[in-house]
């Protein structure tokens, strides 16, 4: 007998769970905006050197005048970072080529740049600084708030994360300089991590074992749909400040309704607050239409169901406990690799949409839409094949697609884009699985600490992903080899993790180690 049995007695997956999961999932519509925002707020518009007293007077009909001031690059389009030292008026009537201008003297953009406003009216590239790397936010998405939630509770940290994201995210739009922008994005990134990880734990800890797969997959669809919402918002506004406000302001609403949430009863019991846990269980029973259970489930009944867990709650757990015992150490080491590689491959594809040569807004919609079939496949695999096979397979398939793209000629842009979209779909499915899988592998007493610890590796992966792109200067195929190789390694390592399909959530570290001992006994017999 355990907490899972109590959940079944108060209605299983009833009205409360439906409302609870829905309210926790709605902010997911805008979490994609937070993670992928730089595709639009830090998009690099077409640009060329500013020509004093001339550029301001140019319009579309007089654009040919640029030929006299701006050299052409290898694709016969105006160069971005150089201009002729002296005006070359004869080039206006010449046919565009490199030969007729290769010997002319050029210089750097001394007066700055002129930006095309067709794709972006304003971005931080054109407004705050001349160049930006695309990794400035993810560095702050560490497991810090997960450590706090193990101490102060899931609900409290989630509410604070909503508020912090709403306030600091909105104020980011007022940034007068790049330094201020970076500070705000850093602090916003901390709250993003708090929202994602605490929402996952609150869902998992209030739903029955058999509903976890369906709930986890459906919740991920909110993030998927949010990617398409981001494309629509960015296309309609095209100004980075307005986009920033549009995707952050709704978190004030999430902050106000989040007070309805029930704190995790498991966490309350394990932190010596059984009476509060009992009140939340009674509340759940009433909402689920089981008011009679408020008389049957007493404090004694609750503590008898979780006697072993209550005893373990007297211990204080830290991140070092993730590595002390054999099974926990194996789980943590494997998950670190899987989280890193999943994020590494995902953001390698998703955070540089301009490289595909397709309209960036259309590309964002396509990248979002492919997640629907990919996650439906993942749902079927999770339900019938289990977490371990699904996790490993998604990573290996995404790796094979990334490798296949190496052999596709660059002029076959449609094929290359299609393969990239397919690879992104499977890395998305891998993300869906790993969030669910991690929540089921770690016990309640250290679940948030564990999720924060291993998901930190995902943040490192998302930081490393854009940096790897510069390797194409050494060898064009090298970034794909690195992304694909990482996914292959993680795919095989995922098969080393224990299966959790239809297995009740562990509440203590001893529960995790006991399952391992039971499995070893079965193998011996």
Automatic annotation (TrEMBL):
Transmembrane segments: 157-177, 214-237, 243-261, 331-349, 361-382, 389-408, 414-438, 450-471, 477-497
Gene Ontology cellular-component terms listed: basal plasma membrane
Compartments (UniProt record): Basal cell membrane
UniProt gene name: oatx
rRNA-binding listed as a keyword: no
Domain Major facilitator superfamily (MFS) profile, chain residue ranges per copy: 59-502
Keywords: Membrane, Transmembrane, Transmembrane helix
Descriptive protein name: Solute carrier family 22 member 6
One MF term in the entry's GO annotations: transmembrane transporter activity
UniProt topology in membrane: Multi-pass membrane protein
A Pfam family: Sugar_tr
InterPro entries, per database record: MFS_dom (IPR020846), MFS_sugar_transport-like (IPR005828), MFS_trans_sf (IPR036259)
Source superkingdom: Eukaryota
Keyword Transmembrane: yes
